[in-house]
Structures are given as structure tokens and as C-alpha cells.
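hey all, quick one before standup. I had two proteins in the batch that finished overnight and I want to keep them in one place so we stop losing track of which output belongs to which input. First protein below, input sequence then C-alpha cells straight from the run.
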Amino acid sequence: MEDNECESVFETQIREEHVETLFGNVHCVMTGTPRASRPVILTFHDVGLNYKTCFETLFSHEDMQEIIGHFPVCHVEAPGQHEGAKTLPSSYTYPTVDQLSEVLPAVLKHFGLRSVIGIGVGAGAYILAKFALIHPDLVDGLLLININPNAEGMIDSVATKITEWTHTLPDTIISHLFGTEEIQTNHDLIATYRHHITTTMNQSNVSQFLRSYNSRNALDVERPVAGTNINVRTLKCSTLLIVGDNSPVVEPVVDCNSKLNPTKTTLLKMSDCGGLPHVEQPAKVIEAFKYFIQGMGYLSSVSMTRLRSRTTSSSSISSFDGSRSRSHTNDLQRGRTHSQGPEDKRGPSHTDGSMESVPINNLSHSVSKSTEVAC
């Protein structure tokens, strides 16, 4: 699937442009040169963040350089959410999240992109999932962090109204991004993001984006049933769901996993991690992303150095467990692996040991299984 995999497509040149769409101009940052032979990584941020505050830690990490050396990256920001944005005019009607998903075809056309691997967080994850449902031919894969597929119920709506009356906008955003325990204990991280929200974001524009996200409809997906001919509405592409175990949206992410195709979806629940796993544990998220990309047939020569993996029944939730890594040091050093059988060309059915020299070809297995990962 790769043409000359060793040849990098990454370039230092960065294109920063405002792309005109039916629902207003969106700020985009394009890095690298698109090629017909491979997709482009496309990101969409969460409420209260922009592409820098949401993804800079992930994409500047040294482990990510091998990936972006082969894949161009296009960061998309919702209208008025970029750094230094002016207040949107009063005559402008802020788009719904469904409409925001419809700005993406214009972005792809503007930059000449044929297909994408989407990385979305929170609201951005919902928007990319919606985009993939409407335009499955344009999406090769999705990494969705903190996706909430549900609409706000009546009780949630009332709680949101009360929060708007009693809390400042930065407080509301912090509660959206982080769980209660993390807010109370991880003071440095919370202070950093409160500063980002207060100083780099236009508060009026953020408020409109937040209102749009809170007014979302439920993501219309249904898990297909094996052996039936019913063509249910679901994500067609390989999908990796990630959530921290201290995130405020653990239950919605697990619920989303239950509604997607188990043969194409993997859920990773990261222990010792809160609302932004790609910020708090970027190396682990990147390693999982490498497995995911390899499962799609790309970067097969990339070696895995951090994770040990074994498949379990679908009733278990995948997890990164930092404490377990220390207890399994001897297992990692032994590097015990089981070879891949001919019946499953997409990846080994059971692996227990070091991945230092064993490329894994698929994180999303072709049977109804989850992947338990410890590092």
C-alpha cells in the first residue's frame, strides 16, 4: 500500500490559510505535501481549545516525528477559534456541529486531499465521526479521543443552564475537559489550560462553539449484527477510541464503543490519565496510533518499543496501566512472542511480550475482540 515507504513526505513549509466554506471561514494549518498514495492526517480540536493548545504536545513529541515524516498533517479550527481571532459579527449564525462536519469537504478540496485519517478530541471527535458517516469514501480511519455520541438530555440541559449562570466560561470549559478528581489534584495542568482559555481564545466565539456542541443531536449509529443483511448506519472505517479513566466522559465513550462495528473498532481506556490523554501521556497515545496506522497497511517497517499486547474477549476494556508495566518488567525483557497464524493475515491472534522488533499489522482485529495493552 505504501509507495517507497522510506521516502519522507514531510516538509518544513507550513501553509496557514483561511478556507471559505458555506458556514464561514475556517482557519487551517497544512504541513507537508499530499500524495495520492496515502491519506493525510486531519485534526479537529475540542471546545475551548485551538489546534495548538489541543495538539501541539502530541505532534511536537519526538515519537510522532516518524509518523509525520510520512503523512502530511492538516489542522482544522472551528470558526473564530484560532489564536487571536476577532469577535464574530453579530449577523453571523454559528454553525451546528453537523454543519461543522460539512465544512470539511471544502477543506479537502481546497488543499487537494483525497482521503484522511482523522484525529479528533471531544467536540472535534464528534464532528469527525459525523463527517465519516456522511462521507465514508473520504475517511480511511479515525482516532477519536473523548467522543460523546449522545445528545444532552433534559437534566443535562438544565444543568448546563445553571452552570452558565453560576460559573465563568473558563470554569465551564475546564469542567468539560477534565474530571473532578483531576481538577482538584493536578493544579499545574489545570492552571495551564485555564491560562490558555483565558488569554489565547476569544471568549465570545468560544461561547458560541460551546453552545453549538451542547445542542448536538445524538450520533446516529447502530452496531451491526453478525449474520444479518441489514445495512445499519455505522462507521465504515477503522476506528480507535481513547479515553482516560479519570475523564468526565468515560461512560459516553464506552457507550459509543458498544454502538460501533466491533470488527473495526478498538477501545483503549488509559489508566492514571485524565481528560486529555494525548497531552498527559503522548508517548502512549502515539504508540497506539502507530499500531493503528500499521493495521491500515501503512508504516509496516516501524518498530514498536513500548507496548506489550494480547487479545482478550470483547467484554474487557482495553487499558494502558502504568502500574502494571512495572510489575511486568521481566516479561518485557524476555520478549516472548507467538507467531502469526495463516488464518489471520491482519495481525497475530495472541502476543505476549516485547514489541521491540515485531511490527503489529492491526490494532483493530477482524473478530469481535478488544486489545488489552500494558506499558
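OK second protein, same deal, sequence then C-alpha cells:
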Amino acid sequence: MTKAPNSPACKFRHLLPGQHVFEGVLFFGYSPPEVLDAVKFFDVRYDDVFIATYPKAGTTWMQEITWLLMNDGNFETAMKTPVYMRSPFLEFKDTRLEENGLEIASAAPSPRVIKTHLPLKLMPHQIHDKKSKIILFFRNPKDVCVSYYNFYKSSSSFGTFHGDWPEFLEMFREGHVDHGSWFDFTKSWWPLRKQPNVKLMYFEDMKQNPFAEIKMLAEFLGKDHIDDGVLSTIAAHCSFERMKDNPMTNHLDVYSIDSSVSPLLRKGLVGDWKNQFTVKQNEDFDKLYFDKLGQLNIPFKYTLDY
């Protein structure tokens, strides 16, 4: 189940706090093996909504939108309780924060909005039988990689990475980051996209037309009774600028994140990867992507006309 982080097979010098490998996926110590084991037997409810994203794909954004939709635009509660308590991170456990995703989710009233970064094989077994709703939120991998790099540098949860960009890019390419390979995560979830209880959405589409995307999501969630005025208010409330200033969503209270290095909500842009990737790095990444996922024809957008 686990492998020593200083195994000779590991060519990367950076170690995550509590680093371990669980069923072939690398994790930090905040997703310990006993929690990952317990996740498989988590008691799923029929009215649960799972948000499945790879790290740094716009997860907090989708959590806030989804929670507000599922709670009919209850902004009063949203402005009093941090999003990570309203929408628990299923496989996360931090005793200092008193945040245990499994416990918070188990005690939460229905309907629950639950966040996860797990590949499909590590999800609760019951999701296949109970057919609760699942939102897959994808973001183009180049922007994900750059955002993850900055998060690695700012967060002690990842051991406060002191390496450079080329080193992190290689770690990302090979899946030597917390929650493992982006390629494996994406490939695992892609076949579920057409199931009636699954909604695939893209970060870039949400940036282009948030109201239309939120309205479509509301219909999927059975919340089509919410009027356009409330949907517009949700879209405004969940704009990047508002969420970055909102203490219930910006995570400035989280001890492990040094926002002076890079805040959790950093830029929220499409195409920022062009400020980080060299021409050669971009060409090499494109080749790797084509070799691993090219046959899936996922319609990622790497730039937008703002």
C-alpha cells in the first residue's frame, strides 16, 4: 500500500509531509492511508453532490457555486461559514485545523456538497449504486500546472517547495505531486461524462459565460426553480474578485498557506501558462499530452479572448 518516500526509485528530491503512495497514487500526510481506506466505505446518500476536480482546477469556485445552488441562494449562511466547512474535503484530515472531511461530511445535513480530488478508483464504492450527482470540473492542464506550482511554493502542507519551475514541471508530468498524476485522474473520470448523474464542466467555459454555465448547472442539480435574478447574484458573488476578498472563500485564515508568497486564489485566469512555459517546455508538454490522452479528444481551451 505504501512506499518509503526516500525509495531509490524516486528521483525527485522534494518530499511531502507524511508522503506515501496509496494504490499507486502519491499523497501528502493530510490524506493518510487509514482515511483513504475509510473513504471507500463512506456512506453515500442519494441526494449527495460530489465535486470531483484535480487540485487547482477551480475547486473552491465550484464549491461555492454548487453550495449556493443546493441551498437556494442562502447567502447569509455562506457569509458566516467557511466554504471548507460547508463543503467538506472528503479525504482530508488536519488535526490542527480540526478539519476531518469524513467526519464533517458524515455529520452534515442533506443535501451534502462534497469535494474530492480522488481518481475514480479511490472513490466511495457506493457512488456506483446510489447514483448521487457528480460534477466533474476540468481545467486545461497547463494552467493547472502553473497554479499548482505556485500553491506548492506557498503551502506548508506540501512541504513548502523551494525548487524551481523546471523541477516542478517534471514532477507534474510524472505525477510526483500530491494526489498523483493529472493524466491518470482525468483519464479515470472521462468515461463517466455521459452518465445522467454526471455533469462535466470546464473552468474556461465558466470564465467565458458564468451565468449561462451556472444556469445549466442549476438545471442539472434540480434547482431550475431558482430565478435568473438569484442566479445572477450567485454569479456576481462567485466572481474571482469577490471570492478573493471574501474571508469565507479566500482561505486567508488557513495557517498552512503563506499568502504573501501566493494566495490560494491567485489569478484565476485562462492562459497564464504562457507566462511560465518556455517554447520547448510547451512543445514537450503537448507531445506528452498527445501520447497519454490525445485519443480522448477532450476539448480543452488554453486561451480565451477576454
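Flagging for whoever picks this up: The beta strands are 20-22, 25-27, 49-52, 93-94, 99-100, 113-116, 133-138, 198-202. The CA atoms of residues 142 and 282 lie 9 Å apart.
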